[in-house]
């Protein structure tokens, strides 16, 4: 079934509906495609519409995808899907679960296959030619989606099943499926009529165009602003950063220079290690001014229009503001509950920042730097404080964090907890869309059964959106026979010189585990129906956040964190320093994230008429006592989670909501007899928190795992903040 939550992934450039990823303190992140219904469409001459063929239950023909096929494939896919929906809506038989709900779950598979390719062009291989098609098709796709969700005959049949006698006889997962579908339609204009219904659809089309424009503007600034360095400007940079910068310059035909690209994976290490303060400021400003340069790619006016249209749209449904509408089916339920959580942590976070700045200023003063700590100094002097307080050098740690070895570590964890085995697929046997993409077969270690495939696209390149995310090209379902999973992880690590290992930071290693957690969530699915592979936004980051904790387990540290030159395991003394410094710089990390989450919620809780977005951001942060040495992790003009789609709009708080669950669940493992590899608890983890996806209410699922609700004090303990 195609509906708004699925289309928003492709219409826009952000996460909506069927979940996926992002980072623990995230970048523009991830979403997953809907599962492919089991009933197959007739074969079609357009490759993008055709059934997946080949091994492993069929795979996308990524090696043969042709952009010229995209527009006709979308047009034909919409026509096929609309015909299916019309047949369901006009069925002369009384509405039942099978002839309405299950029929909808089977519909739209040809169009879903097109979206698998569309997602690659949008996220992994964008080009000016694709963006032209995207701009043209976005309002058309939105109008198509509105026709489906506002089909009154269809909605009345869904309503009949939801409110009829048959509902009580359905299984619990079937009842949840019916409710999710009913709510999806009701919340997206199906209950409206006349002018209100038409206006709702028109707003959707306008928003779809604005989301696309917003995302493309950010991508343009990421591609258009690159800082090139010469040999004499490399002071303080580790060899690994220099090598990556040289490689990035070479890829841009600037041999002999060094490129700091306008992405977090390039910006962050430069600001951490560069001795050139003027260049740190330049790189900092370039990165944090994305979408805010007063030029053709400026996003401020677009944001104002998005906010006003969202507010108008939810008013048609009787809501006071967009945040109220968005949170009604989340774990938080209301904006007030979400704000209460964030505001309970905010004072401790900014208090910690003040102390961190005092420590950094002392180092700068002792060096005779004669400066006041500014935002472009924070990472640089935090690193000096880390070395002074904990004798911990981030670059020294990096020597033990090889990308390939960390991948092996993730496979080890998946084997212990999920009984998954990962075997490389012979090159050429499964089509890929870029030579950097590698594929593994995933099997059950005990039965040998195929679970699916795992695709990995790890490196940054022109045309690939920034950040890290997970997605799937086919999700597991059983209602029409077993479907295996085609899952994918995508990152933006800077590719080093040929033959050299890629070394990453500790934070990036945590993110790598985080995104793999999303993939494991897909791969462990044991649900019957496609829609149940979705998720509740302030819950779906929990599973991936939790997987980060296995990076610091002894089994991973002892076997996979080895020096990239000598192969020697990371010294126990260095591990001790890492663990001692676990909550170091927590003020910075918490504050930059929370500032973004709070601004998001506040923007969507006010009347946005006449809003000056830049002024609102500036004045609201000042009223919150935002430390002047820190900026939001995602400033409003580049906040793709929120303004290139709707998945995280009024929902960015969800990472912290999920982290309460994460911290509480991590304490359960820490207290278990077998620790983080306790088999009984691991079985409960898979059974109650991973395999059920969205077939069980998240709050109930967590209680089944833990025996009680999560305790917010666990989060405060985790971050080293005072617990009252």
Could you write a compact summary of the structure shown?
The protein has 724 residues and is mainly alpha-helical.
Through-space gap between termini: 48 Å
Residue share in β-strands: 5-15%
**Low-pLDDT windows of residues:** 1-43
Overall pLDDT confidence: 92
Q: How is the biggest beta sheet arranged?
A: 5 strands, mixed
Give the total of beta strands: 7
Radius of gyration: 25 Å
List the strand order in the largest sheet.
3-4-5-7-6
Number of helices: 28
Fraction of residues in helices? 40-55%
Principal-axes geometry comes out as globular
Q: Structural class, judged by helices and strands? A: mainly alpha
Explain how this protein is built.
This protein is mainly alpha-helical and 724 residues long. Among the domains are: 4-220 and 297-318, no CATH class; 226-287, no CATH class. Helices cover 53% and strands 6% of the residues. It is built from 28 helices and seven strands. It has helices at residues 4-11, 70-89, 97-106, 109-124, 128-149, 152-163, 172-190, 194-224, 239-251, 264-273, 277-288, 300-316, 322-327, 335-366, 378-390, 394-398, 403-418, 506-523, 540-547, 554-560, 572-580, 586-603, 613-623, 640-643, 654-671, 679-690, 698-706, 713-718; strands at residues 227-229, 258-260, 420-424, 438-444, 450-459, 469-474, 485-493. A five-stranded mixed β-sheet has the order 3-4-5-7-6, sandwiched between helices. It has a two-stranded antiparallel ribbon with strand order 1-2. α2 runs antiparallel to α3, α10 (264-273) packs antiparallel against α11 and α19 (540-547) crosses α25 (654-671). The longest helix is centred in the middle third of the chain and has 32 residues, at 335-366.
């Amino acid at each position: 079934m195609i509906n708004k939550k699925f289309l928003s992934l492709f219409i826009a450039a952000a996460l909506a509906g069927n979940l996926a990823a992002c980072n623990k303190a995230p970048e523009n992140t991830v979403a997953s495609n809907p599962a492919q219904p089991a009933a197959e469409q007739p074969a079609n001459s357009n490759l993008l519409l055709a059934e997946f063929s080949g091994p492993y239950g069929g795979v996308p023909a990524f090696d043969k995808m042709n952009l010229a096929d995209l527009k006709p494939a979308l047009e034909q896919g919409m026509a096929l899907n609309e015909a299916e929906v019309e047949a369901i809506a006009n069925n002369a038989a009384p509405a039942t679960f099978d002839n309405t709900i299950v029929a909808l779950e089977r519909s739209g598979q040809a169009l879903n296959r097109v979206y698998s390719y569309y997602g690659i062009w949008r996220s992994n291989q964008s080009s000016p030619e694709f963006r032209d098609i995207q701009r043209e098709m976005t309002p058309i796709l939105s109008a198509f989606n509105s026709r489906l969700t506002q089909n009154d005959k269809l909605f009345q049949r869904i309503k009949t099943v939801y409110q009829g006698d048959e509902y009580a006889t359905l299984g619990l997962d079937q009842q949840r499926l019916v409710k999710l579908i009913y709510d999806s339609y009701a919340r997206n204009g199906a209950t409206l009529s006349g002018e209100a219904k038409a206006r709702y659809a028109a707003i959707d089309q306008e928003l779809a165009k604005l989301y696309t424009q917003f995302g493309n503007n950010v991508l343009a600034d990421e591609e258009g602003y690159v800082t090139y360095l010469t040999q004499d400007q490399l002071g303080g940079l580790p060899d690994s950063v220099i090598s990556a910068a040289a490689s990035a310059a070479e890829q841009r035909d600037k041999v002999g220079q060094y490129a700091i690209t306008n992405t977090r994976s390039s910006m962050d290490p430069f600001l951490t290690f560069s001795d050139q303060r003027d260049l740190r400021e330049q790189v900092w400003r370039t990165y944090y001014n994305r979408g805010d340069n007063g030029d053709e790619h400026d996003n401020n006016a677009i944001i104002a229009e998005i906010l006003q249209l969202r507010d108008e749209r939810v008013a048609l449904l009787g809501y006071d503001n967009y945040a109220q509408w968005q949170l009604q089916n989340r774990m938080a339920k209301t904006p007030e509950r979400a704000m209460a959580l964030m505001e309970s942590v905010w004072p401790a976070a900014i208090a910690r920042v003040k102390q961190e700045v005092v420590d950094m200023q002392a180092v700068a003063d002792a060096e005779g730097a004669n400066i006041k700590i500014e935002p472009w100094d924070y990472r640089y002097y935090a690193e000096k404080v880390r070395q002074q307080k904990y004798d911990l050098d981030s670059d020294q740690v990096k020597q033990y964090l090889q990308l390939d070895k960390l991948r092996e570590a993730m496979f080890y964890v998946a084997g212990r907890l999920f009984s998954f085995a990962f075997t490389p697929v012979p090159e050429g046997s499964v089509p890929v869309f870029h030579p950097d993409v590698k594929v593994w077969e995933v099997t059950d270690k005990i039965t040998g059964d195929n679970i699916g495939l795992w695709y990995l696209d790890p490196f940054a390149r022109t045309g690939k959106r920034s950040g890290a995310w997970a997605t799937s090209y086919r999700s597991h379902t059983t209602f029409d026979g077993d479907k295996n999973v085609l899952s994918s992880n995508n990152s933006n690590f800077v590719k080093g010189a040929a033959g050299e290992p890629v070394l990453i930071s500790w934070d990036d290693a945590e993110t790598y585990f985080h995104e793999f957690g999303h993939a494991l969530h897909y791969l462990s699915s044991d649900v019957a129906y496609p829609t149940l592979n979705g998720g509740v936004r302030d819950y779906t980051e929990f599973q991936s956040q939790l997987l980060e904790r296995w990076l610091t387990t002894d089994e991973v540290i002892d076997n996979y964190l080895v020096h990239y030159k000598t192969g020697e395991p990371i010294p126990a003394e260095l591990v001790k320093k890492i663990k001692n410094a676990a909550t170091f710089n927590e003020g910075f990390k918490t504050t930059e994230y929370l500032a973004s989450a709070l601004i998001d919620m506040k923007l969507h809780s006010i009347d946005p008429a006449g809003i000056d977005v830049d002024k609102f951001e500036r004045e609201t942060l000042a009223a919150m006592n935002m430390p002047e040495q820190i900026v939001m992790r995602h400033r409003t003009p580049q906040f793709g989670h929120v303004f290139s789609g709707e998945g995280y709009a009024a929902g960015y708080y969800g990472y912290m909501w999920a982290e309460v669950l994460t911290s509480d669940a991590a304490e359960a493992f820490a207290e278990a007899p077998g620790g983080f590899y306790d088999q009984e608890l691991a079985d409960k983890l898979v059974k109650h928190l991973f395999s059920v996806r969205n077939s069980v209410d998240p709050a109930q699922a967590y209680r089944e795992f833990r025996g009680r609700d999560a305790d917010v004090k666990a989060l405060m303990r985790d971050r080293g903040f005072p617990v009252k």
